[in-house]
C-alpha cells in the first residue's frame, strides 16, 4: 500500500437548524400561546489522534468530510435534534495546516488528542423565545447559522526518538529490524526501503522509537533518489544514527563518504543538520580483525575526539545490545 504523508481535504461543519413559528392549538383554547421550538446545533468536525494509524492513506481518495446539519425546531416547544459530529482520525505526528494562510492550526503529538477543526452552526430560535408582556403572539423566529467550512492540509511527520541515515545498502533496515520490533524488507539492492518504517526498542521498561528512511545518495537535496522526500520525518528525532558500510572505507575516501550525507542534510534543512549524530560503522563481520584495526586507526585521525562511534554487525547482532543501552542512556540523561 502506498505510503501517504500529505493530503488536502475539505471539511464542512453542519448548519444550525431553523427555529419554528407555531401556536398551541387545543380544544376549548382558541387562542393558544406560541409553542415553536428552537432548531438543533449543527454537527462539529473534529480531528482525533489514532495510535493504530501510521499513514494518511485513508485520505488519498476521500477528500471531503461533512458533519450533519441540525434539525429544524417544531411545535409543542420541541427543539430540533443536534447534527451528528464527524471525526477525522489521524496518526500521531500529523500537523493540521490552514490551506489559505499556511498557518499550523495544531500539531497532533499526544494519544487521544481531540481538536475542534470546524464548528457547527448555531441553532435558530423558535417564536416561543420572543414572547413578552407586550407581544403575546410573536410570529418571529430565526434561522440557524451556517457551519464553518475549511480547506486544510494534513501533513504527517513521524514521531521517533532515533533516526537512521546512510547510503542505500549501508544496513539501515537490517539495524532497524535487529534492534527493534520493526518488520523491514531487506535485500542486496538499492532503495529496498521505499517508505519510512518505525520500530520500538524496549530495555528494562525503558524504550525508544527508531525510524528507518530510504537511503540518501549524492544529489538527494535536488530530487535524486528517494531519501530527500522522507528526510522531513527525521525532524522530530533527538538523535541520528549515521550508518556507514565499513567495507567501503578506503584510505582516501572516508571524508567523502561521511560528508556527502551531511551536505545533503544541510542543503535540505539546517535545523536537521543540527541534530546530534553518532557514526555507526556496520558490517564488521565481513572484515578481519586486522583490517578493522587499520580502519579504526584511520577513523580516529579523521574525526573529532568527541564524536561518538560504534562498530557493529547488524546482520550478526554484534554490538547491538551495547548500542541500544547507550541510546537509552543518552535519551534519559537528556530527559528526552
From TrEMBL:
EC number assigned by the record: 3.6.5.-
Gene: obgE
Swiss-Prot/TrEMBL GO biological process terms: ribosome biogenesis
Keyword rRNA processing: no
EC main group: hydrolase
GO molecular function, one term: ribosome binding
Protein's recorded name: GTPase Obg
Self-association and partners: Monomer.
Residue numbers binding GTP: 166-173, 191-195, 212-215, 282-285, 313-315
Domain OBG-type G per the UniProt entry, residue ranges: 160-332
Amino acid at each position: 500500500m502506498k505510503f501517504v504523508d500529505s493530503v488536502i481535504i475539505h471539511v464542512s461543519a453542519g448548519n444550525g437548524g431553523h427555529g419554528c413559528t407555531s401556536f398551541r392549538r387545543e380544544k376549548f383554547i382558541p387562542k393558544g400561546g406560541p409553542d415553536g421550538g428552537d432548531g438543533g446545533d449543527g454537527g462539529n468536525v473534529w480531528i482525533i489522534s489514532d495510535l493504530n494509524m501510521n499513514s494518511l492513506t485513508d485520505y488519498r481518495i476521500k477528500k471531503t468530510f461533512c458533519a450533519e446539519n441540525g434539525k429544524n425546531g417544531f411545535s409543542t416547544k420541541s427543539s430540533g435534534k443536534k447534527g451528528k459530529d464527524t471525526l477525522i482520525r489521524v496518526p500521531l505526528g500529523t500537523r493540521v495546516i490552514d490551506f489559505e494562510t499556511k498557518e499550523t492550526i495544531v500539531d497532533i503529538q499526544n494519544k487521544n488528542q481531540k481538536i475542534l477543526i470546524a464548528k457547527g452552526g448555531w441553532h435558530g430560535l423558535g417564536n416561543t423565545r420572543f414572547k413578552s408582556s407586550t407581544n403575546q403572539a410573536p410570529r418571529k423566529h430565526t434561522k440557524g447559522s451556517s457551519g464553518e467550512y475549511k480547506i486544510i492540509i494534513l501533513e504527517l511527520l513521524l514521531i521517533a526518538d532515533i533516526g537512521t541515515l546512510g547510503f542505500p545498502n549501508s544496513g539501515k533496515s537490517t539495524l532497524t529490524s535487529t534492534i527493534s520490533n520493526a518488520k523491514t524488507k531487506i535485500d542486496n539492492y538499492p532503495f529496498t526501503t521505499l517508505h519510512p518504517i518505525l520500530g520500538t526498542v524496549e530495555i528494562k521498561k525503558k524504550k525508544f522509537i527508531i525510524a528507518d528512511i530510504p537511503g540518501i545518495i549524492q544529489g538527494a537535496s535536488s530530487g535524486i533518489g528517494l531519501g530527500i522526500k522522507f528526510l522531513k520525518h527525521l525532524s522530530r528525532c533527538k538523535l541520528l544514527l549515521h550508518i556507514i558500510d565499513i567495507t567501503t572505507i578506503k584510505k582516501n575516501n572516508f571524508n567523502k563518504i561521511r560528508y556527502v550525507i551531511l551536505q545533503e542534510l544541510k542543503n535540505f534543512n539546517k535545523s536537521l543538520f543540527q541534530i546530534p549524530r553518532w557514526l555507526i560503522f556496520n558490517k564488521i563481520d565481513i572484515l578481519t580483525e586486522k583490517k578493522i584495526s587499520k580502519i579504526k586507526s584511520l577513523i580516529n585521525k579523521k574525526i573529532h575526539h568527541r564524536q561518538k562511534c560504534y562498530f557493529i554487525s547488524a546482520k550478526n547482532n554484534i554490538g547491538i545490545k551495547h548500542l541500544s543501552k547507550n541510546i537509552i542512556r543518552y535519551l534519559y540523561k537528556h530527559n528526552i
